[in-house]
Specification:
- It is a single chain.
- By secondary structure, the chain is an all-alpha fold.
- It has one domain (3-81).
- The chain contains 5 helices and no strands.
- It has helices at 3-12, 14-23, 34-63, 66-72, 74-81.
- Helix 4 (66-72) packs across helix 5 (74-81).
Length: 92
């Protein structure tokens, strides 16, 4: 099967179309832009998606007034957000 035929099959695949749509990519896959599209999708899932979650956490902490306390007393809140070996114990 020729590369152009494979690209057409991929571009018609519903899972691939959903993947492009979810990542905000508005172009179709070609041999010329395949590396760019892979990079675009990877950036979306590795960076952008996680950033949205972290931004929501930040906003929630801010609304509740916890963010200001965290900034004022970082060492007090560190055990809740930073893993240290042996810091988690089982209660029995």
């Amino acid at each position: 099967m020729a590369d152009s035929e494979q690209m057409n099959l991929i571009n018609q695949d519903s899972q691939f179309i959903d993947l492009l749509s979810e990542s905000g990519c508005t172009t179709t896959l070609t041999m010329e832009n395949k590396d760019e599209i892979v990079q675009f999708i990877m950036c979306h899932f590795v960076l952008n998606k996680r950033k949205v979650l972290l931004d929501q956490l930040h906003e929630g902490l801010k609304i509740l007034g916890v963010l200001d306390e965290m900034k004022a007393r970082p060492l007090l809140f560190e055990p809740f957000f930073v893993y240290h070996e042996g810091s988690v114990t089982q209660r029995g």
